[in-house]
Amino acid sequence: MSDDGGKRERILAAALDVFSTQGFSNTTVQEIAERAKVGKGTFYTYFPTKEDVLIHLLDDGLTHMGQYMEGKIRTLKGSVAKLRAILREQLQYFHDHQPLCRLITREVWGHHDQSSSFAQRIRSSYIKMLQEVIDKGIREGELRTLDSETVATALYGMVSVVALYTTDLSSDKALEHIEMTLQELFFSGITQPHTLMGEA
Fold first, then answer.
1. How far apart are the C-alpha atoms of 95 and 175, rounded to whole Å?
2. Residues 134, 140, 144, CA angle at the centre, nearest 5°?
3. Helices (H), the chain
4. Cα(25)–Cα(162) distance, integer angstroms
5. Chain-wide mean pLDDT for the chain?
6. pLDDT tens-digit readout, 108-141
7. Distance between CA 134 and CA 146 in Å, rounded?
8. Domains of the chain in sequence order
9. pLDDT at 45
10. Which of 36, 96, 152, 153 has its CA 20 to 30 A from that of 163?
């Protein structure tokens, strides 16, 4: 890796770390430069503004996650099998990339006013992938006829927030337990069948 490339990667790594812990708006270019062990002038050589770093991190992170998910479900048959895999793999991905998970949750889903057009494009891109799976399942009678955008957003939000706030994901067993709970919650709900019958 060249020296120039090393500096750019250090800036990105430092920005991800600081943005994910204290938020974009609370972070200064000076803090990023100090964390990356470069001067402010070097920062501006690679990124004209702090917003450019944020957009790069989000775009790169969400693109990589989307490609990762699509690769995992490409050969699966049936929408339920694909959605189960997406739930499992998204949980695993966010577990393995905690700073990115915090950044996405905070900056893409948490604030409508900041980098709003970019954040909306990012949200729409990922939700669209989920919607396509859900719409196909509805057409083929595998899934109930519900608003696919709402279902897609609920799936993404449920998994990402659980991954963000669950502290004990240190073992494969803990991760598997949480995944099983989310699978049951999303695909079966939390209400006992006799309770539903009693309300009918």
1. 9
2. 55
3. 3-22, 29-36, 40-46, 50-73, 79-96, 98-103, 116-139, 148-165, 172-188, 193-199
4. 24
5. 84
6. 766 555 445 666 666 677 788 899 999 999 999 9
7. 9
8. 1-48 (1.10.10.60), 49-191 (1.10.357.10)
9. 94
10. 36
